[in-house]
Amino acid sequence: xxxxxxxxxxxxxxxxxxxxVVAPGDVVAIVNTGDDITLHGLYISPDLDIVTYTLAGIIxxxxxxxxRGDTTNTLEMLKKLGAxxxxxxxxxxxxxHIRRTxxxxxxxxxxxxxxxxxxxxxxxxxxxxxxxxxxxxxxRTPDGLIxxxxxxxxxxxxxxxxxxxxxxxxxxxxxxxxxxxxxEADTILIAPxxxxxxxxxxxxxxxxxAALEATAAPVVAISPIVGGAAIKGPxxxxxxxxxxxxxxxxxxxxxxxxADLLVIDNVDAALADDIRATxxxxxxxxxxxxxxxxxxxxxxxAIAAARELRIEH
Amino acid sequence: xxxxxxxxxxxxxxxxxxxxVVAPGDVVAIVNTGDDITLHGLYISPDLDIVTYTLAGIIxxxxxxxxRGDTTNTLEMLKKLGAxxxxxxxxxxxxxHIRRTxxxxxxxxxxxxxxxxxxxxxxxxxxxxxxxxxxxxxxRTPDGLIxxxxxxxxxxxxxxxxxxxxxxxxxxxxxxxxxxxxxEADTILIAPxxxxxxxxxxxxxxxxxAALEATAAPVVAISPIVGGAAIKGPxxxxxxxxxxxxxxxxxxxxxxxxADLLVIDNVDAALADDIRATxxxxxxxxxxxxxxxxxxxxxxxAIAAARELRIEH
Lengths: 313, 313
Fold this sequence. Notes:
The structure is a homodimer. By secondary structure, the first copy, chain A, is of the alpha/beta class. Helices cover 40% and strands 18% of the residues of chain A. Chain A has helices spanning 9-21, 46-56, 73-80, 91-105, 110-120, 148-154, 178-184, 199-204, 208-214, 235-241, 248-254, 272-277, 292-312; strands at residues 2-6, 27-31, 37-39, 42-44, 126-129, 136-141, 144-147, 163-167, 187-190, 219-222, 225-226, 229-230, 261-265, 281-285. A 7-stranded parallel β-sheet of chain A has the order 5-2-1-9-10-13-14, with helices on both faces. Chain A has a 3-stranded antiparallel β-sheet with strand order 7-6-8.
C-alpha cells in the first residue's frame, strides 16, 4: 500500500500517475487542509477537492482546480447580491461545498465527508484529510497574518513573506486512518507539492511526522522545485522566507531527517552530489508532468526508487 | 401607500400590475413564509423569492418561480453527491439561498435579508416576510403532518387533506415594519393567493389580523378561485378540507370580517349577490392575468375599488 502526502495541483497530477502504476485502491492520499476556508458560509477544502476531482477525471485540467466545463452562474448571482466573490467557484464545484457544509453541520467529520464525496465520484483511492480539526495556514506579512487563500488568490502572492503560521495545528489530531495508513504503507511518497504550506502543514499535525519517522517504509519525495523555480504556486517566496534555498537542494533541506530519497529533475542533476552528501539518496529524471505519459513515468520512477530502497535496507 | 398580502406566483403577478398603476416605492408586500424550508443546509423562502424575482423582472415566467434561463448544474452535482434533489433549484436561485443562509447565520433577520436581496435586485417595492421566526405550514394527512413543500412538490398534492397546521405561528411576531405598514396604508390588497396556506398563514401570525381589522383603510381581496377552480396551486383541496366551498363564495367566507370587498371574475358574476348578502362588496371583472395588460387592469380595478370604498365611508 502506498501513502502519498498531497497538496493540491502538483500532488493531484502526480497521483494520477501513481494510480496508473499501482491499483488505485492500494493508494491512500493524505491531504493538506490548511488552505480550507469558509466563504459564503460554505466550507471549502481546495486540496481535498483538487485531489478528488483529478482522480475522478472531472478536473478542469488547464487550471488544475475546479470542475471541467463548469459554469459560474451561482457566483455571478452571489456577486449581484452583494457577496465578495474574489474566490472563483463554479456551479458544480459549489455543490461539493454545499453538500460538505450540510454534512459537517449535521455532525459528520471532514474525513467522512471526503470519503462520501470521493466514493460518489467513483474514486477508488482513499482521500484522507490530514485532520478533522480546523487548521488554517496563515502567511505572516508586513500587513499581519493573512490566510493562505487570501494571500495566494486575492492578493496574488504579492505580499512580502515573513513567516508561516499553522493556526490550530498544535491542537489538531491526525484524521481517522492517517496514522494507520502510514503504519501499514510499504511506500511513502511525498508528492511534488509546496514543502512549506502543503507538506509542511501536514507535518505540523502532531503525530504525523513521528509516524513517518518511525515507519520502516521508504520515504520518497519528489522535488517541486525545478531549475530554481516552482513548477506552480508560491513555493519560492515561502521557502526563501523560511531560510531555504529555492532549489532541489533547498527541498532536500526541508525534508532532512524525513525523506530517504529525493527525486529531482534532469536540469538539477548538478545538485545531486550536494544532496547525497546530506545522506539523502537521489534519483534524477524528468519531473515535469506535461501529460499522462510523464505523470505515469514520474510515478513509476518514484515507486521503483522506493522498491530499491526496500531491497537495499 | 398600498399594502399587499402575498403568497407566491399569483401574488407576484398581481404585484407586477400594482407597481404599474402606482409608484413601486409606494407598495409594500407582506409575504407568506410558511412555505420556507431548509434543503441542503440552505434556507429557502419560496414566496419571498417569487415575489422578489418577479418584481425584479428576472422570474422564469412560464413556471412563475425560479430565475429566467437558469441552469441546474449545482443541483445535478448535488444529486451525484448523494443529496435528495426533489426540489428544483437553479444555479442563480441557489445563490439567493446561499447568501440568505450566510446572512441569517451571521445574525441578520429574515426581514433584513429580504430587504438586502430586493435592493440588490433593484426592486423598489418593500418586500417584508410576515415574521422573522420560523413558521412551517404543514398539511394534516392520513400519513401525518407533511410540510407544505413536501405535500405540493414532492407528493404532487395527492394526499388527502385533513387539515392545516401552522407550526410555530402562535409564537411568531409580525416582522419589523409589518404592523407599521398596515397602520400607514391607505389601501390593503389581498392578492389572488391561496386563502388557506398563503394568506391564511400570514393571518395566523398573532397581531396581523387584528391590525387589519383595526385599520380604517379599505381591505380589497381578489379571488384566486375562478369558475370553481384554483387558477394555480392546491387551493381547492385545502379549502374543501377546511369546509369552504371551492368558489368565489368560499373565498368570501375565508375573508369574512376582514375584507370589505372581493374582486371576482366575470365567470362568477352569478355569485355576486350571495357574497353581497354577507355584507361584502363585490367588483366583477376579468381576473385571469394572461399578460401585462391584464395584470395592470386587475390591479387598477382593485385599487379603484379601494378608492371608492374610501370615498363612501
